[in-house]
Amino acid sequence: MRPDGTPIQALLWRTFAPAIVIVAVALGALVYARLYDTILDGFSRRLETVSALTGALIDPADHDALMALARPGADAAAIEAGEVYRRNVEPLRRIRRELGLTYLYTQAIGGPEDVLYVLDATEGEEHSAIGSPDDLPDDTLAGLKATQATGAIYASPIQYQAQWGLLKTAAAPVRGADGRIAATAGADVNISVIRVATQNAVLASAMIGVASLLASALVILVILRRVAQPIEGLKADALRIATGDRAPPVERRAPREVGRLRVALAGLADELVAAMRGARARTLAEDRAHGVEVIRQALGAADGDDSVEALLWARARRVLERRIAERPELAADAELLRGRP
Q1: pLDDT over 80 at 61, yes or no
Q2: Separation in Å, CA 67 to CA 118, 147, 174, 223
Q3: CA-based diameter of the chain, in Å?
Q4: Residues 278, 171: one domain?
């Protein structure tokens, strides 16, 4: 037997399930994009603030003196062991450690390559000694030149540098003793740091997506319980009543419209029961009338004669009279029969 259609619960699941999955994925992607932009903006603000603070903390006269010593071939170890270098680099090292920055330094444009490092708060193998040259991407070098020319803080996008990898950089002006911009203070963060924050953003996006899926599934379950199940129950009641069952529809908690439909179905069931009773009564009456007519025809009665009961009584009386007449000893009793109506 072919099914009579798709159940409403299955239809609702088929309708809503793809929709909530799409909404959850779209919501997760939107949240991830917004969080990623927020993360990058937060790193940009942090780097800009740190670079500006670094440029303000450095003593102009000390930095001018160190810039004069920052040249290839200089005794970098002796310079960095000196008091001038140490009292300016130590605050930078504390800032870098506490803020989790990858690199914090000052640099001057020029030298055998694009820039020469002056102060570098990085310790260990990645430390750039004073006077070390470095080659920068063209847009980063252009940003440093703009900062040195105008004093505006430069923030780069995430970009690849051959020596340092993927970095996001900010640079602020460092002024000399004469008040002119003599160098820039740079603050860098490696892409790995950004990736950790991004992974947290992905996790948050996934959790939001899962939460939205669960919330949507809960909403569908509520809809199924409040709407679909009462409708399916009403359908079962309608099919039951259609088969002749006289019981009214079962009362269930349902929305107003479903309740009105149940009341209408109950009224229809009452009308159906009344119609069945009326049809039965008419059938019994017709059968009785047909039986009477058959009896009248058997008795040979014409239209307008006495009732069937009277005709039957008359026939019985005649039969009795004939039998009594055949037996003389009962003739006296015949007089009693003739006196009856």
Answers
A1: yes
A2: 6, 18, 11, 73
A3: 170
A4: no
